[in-house]
Structure formats: structure tokens, C-alpha cells
Design a protein that fits this description.
alpha/beta
């Protein structure tokens, strides 16, 4: 089968490794002779992948490198083609979508193994591309707000929330989910001229630029999807007893680093968190509910073939390319 892989070493023979020698996009290769994966244990499903997506920081995930050796691609929408004999929830022919765990991945391929805990039945009103565009970004947003920050949904008492990178692939779901739950949301962006209208259209109560932070009243919750230096500035706008959440791959270890550099000085009462999103049927249930209510949808920026995935990965780092996910069709 055809599938994407990351070359193990640089042209001079140096092994790629996390965190000091991550692979560049030029290390992404497409192979046409990869053996089709075979399920081997209960809970596994073999799916024919109809669509996947590009994650902005995928090559910066430590799971891709020794000793983990995960594969590229995590979001998926596809058709179940093989199930284990003990499988009760899914059957051959089911249309499913979800996110494969970071420690395995493998959905930039014609076929992939996912688990029954990662898969949900695809909603009929979603195309393959729209379905694939949802899970990774929407799961991260849902878990940031409701599992890690502990927001109420629906809110009994509305919280003031600041979201950085608010127009990005994850930020847009953070805005929509927090607004739908009844909270007051301020979306922060690098350009209100470029992104303000879009952010207000998805529910943001106010839109600001990062340079405006000094004029803002403190927030109960700040969710950062950008990383430093914006993440460092977030300490100045979170309440002394508030919560600061980050999940960007480059922000791993930020709590200790910011303490060491004195960036978080005076905010020792802040509950600072870093997390990596994981597959969750609970989260997917909330996401599907919002989709059925028409509150959110899978936003597809453009669709590319597997052959063009390297260029697509490079393009997601460009500002102003639009809103939504780049979808990969094997």
C-alpha cells in the first residue's frame, strides 16, 4: 500500500531525534510498497482511510522518534474493513472517524489500524473530508476546556477566557466550544484586520492582538495554542488564582522553563498545565453533539493527495492561508 514515512536519518547520516534534531519536512517520503497492516489483538480495527489531516507540529512530536517510532497521520475518516472476532461495537462496512493515538499514528496511508476506543461512528451529515478535519483539533479543544481546565458546560457562572491563536485549527474550536458552554471569550490573534471578522463570526465576544495584552483585565482561564513568546506573555493576563493551559508541542516543559527564567514570577498561585490530547469517546460524544446541533463543523481549507503531503505540511506554517484543516486523501 501507499503510505508516508519519515526518513530515519539526515543526508549526512545523523539520526533524527527528539528534541534536538527533529526531522525537517524534506524527510517526509511516500512509499508504495508498505505492507498492509494486520490486526493482531482485541479492540483493533483495520480501516480503509478515506481522509486524514495535516498537523502543524507533527514532526515535533517525540513519539515519531526512537524509542517510540510512531507513524505520520492521526486524524482519520474511513471504512472498517477488518474487525477482531471479539469486536462488539463495530462491524465491517461501518463508516468511522476519530484520532489515532500519538504513540501509533499511521493514517497518512491507504489503510491503518485504529482501536475501537479511538473510533466513533461518522455522522451522516459530514463528508469524509469534514469528518477527518474534526477529531484532532476538536478533541484538543474539548479536553483543554472541559477535562483539564475543568470548565462547566453549560456554565453556571460564566468565566472570562482568553484564547491565543484563536483563528487557528485548534483555536477556532476553543472559541466555539467555550462560547457554546456559556462563557465570555476573547480571541487573541496576530492581526485583527485579517482574522477579526472570522473570529466574531464564530462567536468571540471580543478580538484583540497580542500587543493589546497590557490593556486587558485578568482572565480566569488562558488557553494558549501558539507557544512562546506569546505563551510567556500569558502570565501577565491570567488571574493570580486562574488557570493557564498549553498543548503546543514546542511548549513542552514551559512551566519549569518559565519558572527558571522568572517569567512566571508573582503568579505562583496560577494552575499551569500542559497536556497532550488523547483519543476519548467522551470528548467525541460532546463534539458530535455540537455538530448535530449545528454549533460546529469540520472546516476544510483544502484537500491534497498523499503525494503532496510534504508541501501541505510546509504550507500550514504560513499565516493568512485561510481557516480550517488541510485534508489528505490517500
Amino acid at each position: 500500500m501507499r503510505a508516508a514515512r519519515v526518513r530515519a536519518t539526515s543526508p549526512n547520516g545523523t539520526p533524527y531525534a527528539f528534541p534536538n534534531n527533529v526531522a525537517p519536512s524534506s524527510a517526509i517520503e511516500i512509499h508504495s510498497d508498505i505492507p498492509k497492516p494486520q490486526i493482531s489483538q482485541p479492540g483493533e480495527l483495520l480501516i480503509q482511510v478515506k481522509a486524514s489531516t495535516v498537523f502543524r507540529d507533527n514532526l515535533e512530536w517525540n513519539e515519531l522518534y526512537p524509542p517510540h517510532h510512531a507513524l505520520l497521520g492521526n486524524d482519520f475518516a474511513g471504512i472498517v474493513v477488518v474487525v477482531h472476532s471479539s469486536e462488539q461495537d463495530f462491524h465491517i462496512g461501518d463508516h468511522v472517524y476519530g484520532m489515532a493515538h500519538a504513540n501509533r499514528g499511521g493514517t497518512w496511508a491507504e489503510y491503518a489500524i485504529v482501536t475501537s476506543s479511538e473510533a466513533s461512528k461518522k455522522l451522516a451529515n459530514l463528508s469524509w473530508e469534514e469528518a477527518a478535519a474534526l477529531p484532532g483539533s476538536a478533541l484538543t479543544a474539548d479536553q483543554a476546556l472541559f477535562m483539564h481546565a475543568g470548565l462547566e458546560t453549560p456554565a453556571q457562572v460564566a468565566k472570562r477566557i482568553l484564547i491565543t491563536g484563536a483563528s487557528g485549527g485548534i483555536g477556532m474550536y476553543l472559541v466555539q466550544f467555550a462560547v457554546a458552554a456559556g462563557h465570555h471569550v476573547v480571541g487573541a490573534t496576530s492581526s485583527t484586520e485579517r482574522n477579526g471578522e472570522f473570529l466574531r463570526s464564530i462567536g468571540a465576544h471580543k478580538v484583540v492582538e497580542y500587543g493589546d495584552f497590557g490593556t486587558l483585565d485578568p482572565f480566569d482561564l488562558v488557553v494558549d495554542s501558539v507557544g512562546d513568546p506569546v505563551l510567556g506573555a500569558c502570565w501577565g493576563v491570567v488571574k493570580g488564582n486562574g488557570t493557564l493551559v498549553s498543548f503546543d508541542a514546542c511548549s513542552w516543559g514551559y512551566i519549569e522553563e518559565h519558572e527558571r527564567k522568572g517569567i512566571s514570577k508573582g503568579k505562583e498561585g496560577v494552575r499551569a498545565l500542559y497536556f497532550i490530547a488523547e483519543p476519548s469517546r467522551e470528548s467525541m460524544g460532546r463534539i458530535s453533539e455540537q455538530v448535530l446541533k449545528g454549533k460546529v463543523k469540520g472546516r476544510v481549507l483544502k484537500t491534497v493527495s498523499l503525494n503532496d503531503v510534504r508541501e501541505a505540511y510546509e504550507s500550514v506554517h504560513s499565516r493568512g492561508i485561510g481557516y480550517g484543516k488541510i485534508v489528505v486523501v490517500p
